[in-house]
Amino acid sequence: MATTLTEENYLKAIYHISHTYGDVVSTNAIAEKVDAKASSVTDMLKKLADKQLLDYIKYKGASLTEKGRKTAIDIIRKHRLWEVFLVEKLKFSWDEVHEVAEQLEHIKSPKLTKELDAFLGFPKHDPHGDPIPNADGYIHRTNKIMLSHAEVGKTYTCVGVIDSSSEFLKYLDKHHIGIGTKLVVVEKEAFDQSMLIKIASKTVAMSKAITTNIYIKEQ
Amino acid sequence: MATTLTEENYLKAIYHISHTYGDVVSTNAIAEKVDAKASSVTDMLKKLADKQLLDYIKYKGASLTEKGRKTAIDIIRKHRLWEVFLVEKLKFSWDEVHEVAEQLEHIKSPKLTKELDAFLGFPKHDPHGDPIPNADGYIHRTNKIMLSHAEVGKTYTCVGVIDSSSEFLKYLDKHHIGIGTKLVVVEKEAFDQSMLIKIASKTVAMSKAITTNIYIKEQ
DNA sequence: TTATATTTTTAGACTAATCTAAAAATATAA
DNA sequence: TTATATTTTTAGATTAGTCTAAAAATATAA
Ligand SMILES: [Mn+2]
Ligand SMILES: [Mn+2]
Ligand SMILES: [Mn+2]
Ligand SMILES: [Mn+2]
What we know:
The structure is a homodimer. By secondary structure, chain A is of the alpha+beta class. In chain A, 42% of the residues lie in helices and 18% in strands. The longest helix of chain A has 23 residues, at 66-88. The first copy, chain A, is globular and about 55 Å long. The interface between A and B is medium-sized, with 18 and 18 residues. The structure holds manganese (II) ion (MN) (4 copies). Chain A binds a DNA duplex through residues 4, 6, 26-28, 36-44, 47, 58-59.
């Protein structure tokens, strides 16, 4: 049974929520993510359960079945491949790609996905540092930490962002921070958990709202 | 007002019909093209007329307004650009691209269209020889004729196809006919209008059903 | 020019996805 | 452990797009 665009968006939302907050996902959490009312979500959960894409227990919540998880990952794979295409081939900047990828991820053609992947040289990460699932749905996760958990004096490499809104990405651009940028932790302020970060030669003060949205790895 | 995918498909259908059969298009002609019942078409014509995308007179037919024509051409432009992308960059063959382009043509992002066009080197024709409208909606039409109207003894170049179904394109592949192939008219059979065509060193007999679906130009 | 055939529209119903308002279930707190 | 708050579901509507069946308009043919 073919999935509709809307169903795919629900599955993706549920996948992302369960990844952060655990397997069973609440109606309200989904409603917030897909920007719909809880009553609409209830209807959709029944439909997705009928299609064996998730298990749903009234008043308890929903959890993706293997079939549902596979479907969600396929959409995410396409989303991230298209983002790479837009940045690498079409001169989009990393803050412009999400909206378009949100549309392109729903194009149905296994050959297209396969050939796009090959054309891009089988990229491992999207422009925001998120891993690209392979054709079998396997996601290679590297051990990254949040900048907020970094230690003073050490040097790190930026490997990803959590918030990939245009506003946040433009903030990073302004301070010349991108995937691969070296960051040195100069100081941590105990009072508000803000940090002083040295990028190239400049030192920037970053609030907790910033440092909890940047992924880094050591060295 | 944003157009839906369905509206765009109707506009495209009406554009193509009016291009062949004249400005005013009948409900039944549209119904056949979009594979829907006449009653559904009537409903849609009312909606498109409300949106000023076409003029509609009950029982008389519909004709695109300038706004509707522009919208249709933009979809056709995207369709053909994507077809070029699939063939030139992703190793699709010319008989595999239409279905996918049918989906991709509805992606809404002016920047995407613009950058894709540039990435492809501003192509003038799609893989089936159809002209690609420019960003302003201008379509450069070259003077091409049907193979069925060719003269015996003359040499022509294949510049396009009318039927771009997979079956027909595979027939052409089998006989090594593509855009740019030289064709020599050896003989015309008056009885059934079939033709003997020399391609490279081989001579092939083609029925009228074939020769009325191939566009050529002299030389 | 009247009868018949064809085309087109209307009427009413269906599905997918959504909403608001009210009811029911569950969680929390006195 | 009973009352209150929160979450979730149900009931009933709405919109887009579609359908079938019937009615109305137009075209064709005797
Ligand atoms: Mn994205
Ligand atoms: Mn999406
Ligand atoms: Mn096509
Ligand atoms: Mn289409």
